[in-house]
Amino acid sequence: MTTSPLIIAFVADLMFTTRIALVAEHLGYRVEWIESADQVGAPDAEAAPERPGEALHGRAGRLFEAIVRRQPALLLFDLNNDAIPWREWIAALKSSAATRRIPVLCFGPHEDVAVMTAAKAAGADAVLARSRFTADMPALFQRYARIPDRPALDAVCAEPLAALARTGIERFNRGEFYAAHDALEEAWMDDSGPGRDLYRGILQVGIAYYQIEQGNYRGAVKMLLRVRQWLDPLPAVCRGVDVAGLRADVERVYQALTALGPERIASFDRALLGVIVVE
């Protein structure tokens, strides 16, 4: 599995795509291009109203799924790209717990103050004039890209599993997802290092499974989307926990649940709610 940082660029201007690709390659980044909203999917004939948070339906839902699955280090928006509804997309991505931590960098015409202000108001982390973006691109990518500290994660994952976390996992494995929450939350709060993400990830998987048992489709899918930001950066084994196996379980659950949809959640196969393996 590749570990090079990913930039998702909502850019269509050939002059900028060429420059961005060259700088990204030099820095060891990958770039995926979304030049128009149609690449994400066809416009929704009748967009279903969404509650605040993650969009689960229509083109907005497909965008969320694409971003969450890829876990990019940076989102890059060309504010001159009229084929992208960047006002709506930036605001939506920055309002979601699953995607709000992903940095958003925008560039546009310095003379169009209203456009630059609108991007900042939508939640962009940085909004720059095209000239400055072009001149400072390497430094900007390195400053704003959010890249996991792999050596630090490897070091903390070599530490032993907290006793509270072990208790929470034991409850999780008995199917006591609600009861597991308190022990895992306490373990997460007691840990100030990056290893706490392991506990937060397991906690949120347990919440998702509990929501499935309660018939809460939206709550379960939201948690399954949110958990990837915590589990995906971790090594295959962390503090004795089989993280790779847990990620695979979460993916199977997500696929089965979304295939059923909210109307058929009662038919979900509970046997898919696997146990967490600890060495």
CATH superfamily of the largest domain: Response regulator
Number of helices: 12
- The CATH class of the largest domain is Alpha Beta
* Order of strands, widest sheet: 2-1-3-4-5
Instruction: Quote the CATH topology of the largest domain.
Output: Rossmann fold
Structural class: alpha/beta
Low-confidence stretches: none
What share of residues is helical?
Answer: 40-55%
Mean pLDDT: 94
- Backbone CA Rg: 20 Å
How many distinct folded domains?
Answer: 2
Organism: Candidatus Promineifilum breve
Pfam families: DUF309
Protein name: DUF309 domain-containing protein
Task: Provide a descriptive summary of the structure in words.
A five-stranded parallel β-sheet has the order 2-1-3-4-5, with helices on both faces. A two-stranded antiparallel ribbon has the order 6-7. It is α/β, with parallel strands linked by helices and 279 residues long. The protein has twelve helices and seven strands. The longest helix has 18 residues, at 196-213. The protein folds into two domains: 6-144, Response regulator (Rossmann fold, 3-Layer(aba) Sandwich), CATH 3.40.50.2300; 150-272, TTHA0068-like (Hyaluronidase domain-like, Orthogonal Bundle). It starts with 5 loop residues before the first strand and ends in a 19-residue tail after the last helix. Helix content is 52%, strand content 10%. It is globular and about 60 Å long. This is DUF309 domain-containing protein. InterPro entries: CheY-like_superfamily (IPR011006), DUF309 (IPR005500), TTHA0068_sf (IPR023203). It comes from Candidatus Promineifilum breve. It holds the Pfam family DUF309.
